[in-house]
Amino acid sequence: MCSVNPGHCTLIKYIFLLLIIIHLGLNTAESVWPLPQIFIPSPERYQLKPQSFSFGYRRYLDTKHSCSVLDAAFKRYFSILFPGYSYANLITFSVATQLLFLNSYKLSVFAGQASLNAETVWGSLRGLETFSQLVYQDDLGSYYINKTEIEDYPQFNYRGILLDTSRHYLPVQAILKTLDAMAYSKFNVFHWHLVDDPSFPYQSHKFPDLSNKGAFHPVTHVYTQSDVRRVISYARMRGIRVLPEFDSPGHTKSWGKGQSELLTPCYRGATPSGTFGPVNPTLPSTYQFMLSLLKEVASVFPDPYIHLGGDEVDFSCWRSNPYIRAFMHKMGFGLDFSKLEAFYIEKIVNITSILRKTSIVWQDVFDYHERRKFLSVVEVWKQGCYLCEVRRVVKAGLRVILASPWYLDQPGPTHNWARYYNVWPLAFKGTEKQKSLVIGGEVCMWGEYVDATNLSPRLWPRASAAAERLWSNERQTSCVERAFPRLQEFRCKLLRRGIQAEPLYVGHCKHEYQSV
Amino acid sequence: MFSLLGFAFVLLALGSCRGLQDNDVDQEEPELVFQSSKYGSLWPLPQKVQISDVSLKLSSSSFSITDAKESGAGPSCGLLQLAYRRYYEYIFGGAKKQKVNRSARAGPTDLLELQVWITSPDSECDGYPSVSSDESYELTVDQPFAVLKAPKVWGALHGLETFSQLIVEDEYGTKTINSTVISDFPRFAHRGVLLDTSRHFLPIKVILTNLEIMAMNKFNVFHWHIVDDPSFPYLSRTFPNLSQKGAYHPYTHVYTPADVKMVIEFARLRGIRVVSEFDTPGHTQSWGKGQTDLLTPCYSGSKPSGTFGPVNPILNSTYDFMTQFFKEISEVFPDAYVHLGGDEVSFACWQSNPDIQKFMEQQGFGQDYRKLESFYIQKLLDIVAATNKGYIIWQEVFDNGVKLKPNTVVHVWIGSGTNSEMSKVTAAGYTTILSAPWYLDYISVGQDWLKYYNVEPLNFNGTEEQKKLVIGGEACLWGEYVDATNLTPRLWPRASAVAERLWSAKEVTDTGDAYSRLSLHRCRLVERGIPAEPLSPSFCLHEYKGV
């Protein structure tokens, strides 16, 4: 996160929000989603006037520069607060610094002023989001905010959403819209499952044939370098990391179209059958190619992590191929193809660390491999007793991202958001140190049945249920019935902001979704 | 040949995918692989199709849709003129119509005109479609003119849709159509989609868009479940308090008379009937807010509990209200039928009320509350019959032994596709509509359109006479979890599966062929700006842009 943090932004310790009080009145406080750690609302309220409201910096060590991330955020949140008004003036102030945790913030609305303190720009983005959720309109259209004290920080540092752009191509616009909505729920990682069997939409400048031949369409269904840069910068402005996944050695059918000899030729009897299996782990050219590709990926994506996949490798093709079998024999792997897979993954992980990136892998890699020391972060995705798996991984001293309970591509007949809310990632036997290895969780939206036509309503607001689990204090958010009205209200806020979030149950929002 | 043309759609067989692992989903489901159908992207499949190899070119500058000289409907038929314009835009993607210039670059393989010929003297251009409307048409695409013949405008509308579906585009944007002969008519007369505007309010725009999509699927009935327990968005001129107090919001969440008119006319222009449903005596909580004494006060012991139950069937005022109300409805909605609901009546509140108990005693109903329900329904049916409307009721009314008039239409919704209910209702001689297998608000993982597609509506024990009583079916999208945000992708293309079942011949059951055509059909919907969700990992040449 910090690596994408431009120097001058880290200097900001204070943000100041200026409100003009018109009058005081009594009203119930509005709700915030996800629930802040410490939230002290009060019935005392202040009116906000769009004409005189503004955001400003309080302390600014180098006043000659402004922080572009926050300037943009001020603009964005101004129009979220007051739809239809434009943001013009910006007043700066200076005040002493205060140290807080990374990503944490303190928000105080009191006596007609609001102040937001944060150690980093990322913490202040979260605080701005919270602030925007505190403002409400009465029936006559006047804006209000209640006296409030908030101290907030996330329960988990990794709060991700996976989008799959291989099974269906998602236009860049759909990705950007998702990033907007992610920021509203305080998600901070966009796990971009860029490529897979069906298509290879990433346009590589070193290997243009990968998308020329492997994308659904070489021109209209690709992400160009500038598309990728746009996504990364859009995400950064919202405090979201972009974690690229280049899944191998399985899930690579589309790679083979543009890169000959990368995939293993499958055999029927003594002759090649014409079909291909996983990446061929026996050829030196494979590793040269992977080094070259990952080198490009490492420079295009600034995040210090790369997701290497490693899931669901089908051994039947490897088994059919006499060269692979000979290689197995030479290496002394016997008939244990998981050893061959381990051999491959270990090499790829090493390439990744040479590129100074930390690798993340799906749990399969952990499960099949005896030597686990070379791994760093394991993503647990399989159903069943997923906490058993989490426990095994942290016992091995590795970090965990939990995805199993949050497979949102499976709608299920019950439409039940509570299924994603009633998840307790730390409910396993383990030491504090082991539990601290669970760095967070991830909502997965696989693309078999999802594209731009239905992505948003399928994702929201169900993903928001997971967002609260990952951000808020478990003890304060253990009751579905109490969360429900707050989530309903949050869903209406999403609609108001143009996010196509589906309804939780019978009811209405003051401003319904107006498009189709 | 078709693989070279059109929508450049690629399908990748479903490999193993995380989404499906470790889940007890449709393991027995056959793997569907995209292989172009000899019927291209036609959906629903016409009754008789002959497509030749002769390919004709269409260009936006030279092609036009016109009235045939002999046609029974001329330029004065607004319905057709609007349809010509609509389909021209579908075909050429809203490209500006240039001046027709036939002599200039019209080659020998160009198709210049689609002539629409209404063959009967009364085109019904200014009328409303009905359950007995003639929807048949014949389409001949040949050099230099294509001719669409239909007895009535309703068939012509379907024929225009079919014509537009025959056109394919290559990667350079050139549009071609193969020389084709089609003769077509629907298998069932009642092909409906139910939308529920009470559990969630649906903005008018959403309703209109879905009428548009219905027409693209040859649906012809919009069953408007307009009010229910949660809200009463219908703005009644006679009883404005019903929506004033019963809607989610009295101004932003109501359908004004002008809105309703607009929906009805928009539907008519697409050959779609609007059948309104005013469900009583249950499902009426929202009615009570704006109409005092209409609902039964429930009792807790000897005192009213403050809650209300179904419509109060023992008061004369109830029937006075219903008389006035349904008089208005019969005037506002031109369709010959009104849906009167009658489902899921809970007897608990009636049982708790001492006045109701007394009435039961007086009438000699004993403890059989079904008799009370029957008493109410029969009075209601008389009221509605007096407005010269026919009526449709949900199956419980029949199940509960209410005496129905012989022309009543019974709507079957309980149970699965092949149920004995269909035998019972038809054996009793009632006209029947089937919805039981087509509750599209229930969702599951994977290709559930197959489930809807594989239904055979006449698959029940009964005589030929009985089967003739089944006039069609409806796909129901109840609104508990559906509003403007997710309605369209949830409904389409899943409802399209129902559309083909209700339109095409009984023998059209090849799921592989259907899969290929439906995949292309869904891409066509997407290209027309409709967020119809995908069937499987795949792509459309023109993806959905309306994010």
From TrEMBL, chain A:
Catalytic activity: N-acetyl-beta-D-galactosaminyl-(1->4)-beta-D-3-sulfogalactosyl-(1->4)-beta-D-glucosyl-(1<->1')-ceramide + H2O = a beta-D-3-sulfogalactosyl-(1->4)-beta-D-glucosyl-(1<->1')-ceramide + N-acetyl-beta-D-galactosamine; Hydrolysis of terminal non-reducing N-acetyl-D-hexosamine residues in N-acetyl-beta-D-hexosaminides; N-acetyl-beta-D-6-sulfogalactosaminyl-(1->4)-alpha-L-iduronyl-(1->3)-N-acetyl-D-6-sulfogalactosamine + H2O = alpha-L-iduronyl-(1->3)-N-acetyl-D-6-sulfogalactosamine + N-acetyl-D-6-sulfogalactosamine; a ganglioside GM2 (d18:1(4E)) + H2O = a ganglioside GM3 (d18:1(4E)) + N-acetyl-beta-D-galactosamine
Any single GO CC term annotated in Swiss-Prot or TrEMBL for this entry: lysosome
Places the protein is found: Lysosome
Main location: other
Keywords: Disulfide bond, Glycoprotein, Glycosidase, Hydrolase, Lipid metabolism, Lysosome, Signal, Zymogen
Oligomeric form and interacting partners: There are 3 beta-hexosaminidase isozymes: isozyme A (hexosaminidase A) is a heterodimer composed of one subunit alpha and one subunit beta (chain A and B); isozyme B (hexosaminidase B) is a homodimer of two beta subunits (two chains A and B); isozyme S (hexosaminidase S) is a homodimer of two alpha subunits. The composition of the dimer (isozyme A versus isozyme S) has a significant effect on the substrate specificity of the alpha subunit active site.
Function, as annotated: Hydrolyzes the non-reducing end N-acetyl-D-hexosamine and/or sulfated N-acetyl-D-hexosamine of glycoconjugates, such as the oligosaccharide moieties from proteins and neutral glycolipids, or from certain mucopolysaccharides. The isozyme S is as active as the isozyme A on the anionic bis-sulfated glycans, the chondroitin-6-sulfate trisaccharide (C6S-3), and the dermatan sulfate pentasaccharide, and the sulfated glycosphingolipid SM2. The isozyme B does not hydrolyze each of these substrates, however hydrolyzes efficiently neutral oligosaccharide.
UniProt similarity note: Belongs to the glycosyl hydrolase 20 family.
Protein name: Beta-hexosaminidase
Protein's organism: Xiphophorus maculatus
Automatic annotation (TrEMBL), chain B:
EC number in record: 3.2.1.52
Entry keyword set: Cytoplasmic vesicle, Disulfide bond, Glycoprotein, Glycosidase, Hydrolase, Lipid metabolism, Lysosome, Signal
Domain Beta-hexosaminidase eukaryotic type N-terminal: 42-166
GO cellular component, one term: lysosome
Location within or outside the cell: Cytoplasmic vesicle, Secretory vesicle, Cortical granule; Lysosome
Signal sequence, start to end: 1-19
Active site: 344 (proton donor)
Enzyme class: hydrolase
Disulfide bonds: 77-125, 298-349, 523-540
Subunit organization: There are 3 forms of beta-hexosaminidase: hexosaminidase A is a heterodimer composed of one subunit alpha and one subunit beta (chain A and B); hexosaminidase B is a homodimer of two beta subunits (two chains A and B); hexosaminidase S is a homodimer of two alpha subunits. The composition of the dimer (isozyme A versus isozyme S) has a significant effect on the substrate specificity of the alpha subunit active site.
Biological role: Hydrolyzes the non-reducing end N-acetyl-D-hexosamine and/or sulfated N-acetyl-D-hexosamine of glycoconjugates, such as the oligosaccharide moieties from proteins and neutral glycolipids, or from certain mucopolysaccharides. The isozyme B does not hydrolyze each of these substrates, however hydrolyzes efficiently neutral oligosaccharide. Only the isozyme A is responsible for the degradation of GM2 gangliosides in the presence of GM2A. During fertilization is responsible, at least in part, for the zona block to polyspermy.
Protein name as annotated: Beta-hexosaminidase
Biological source species: Xiphophorus maculatus
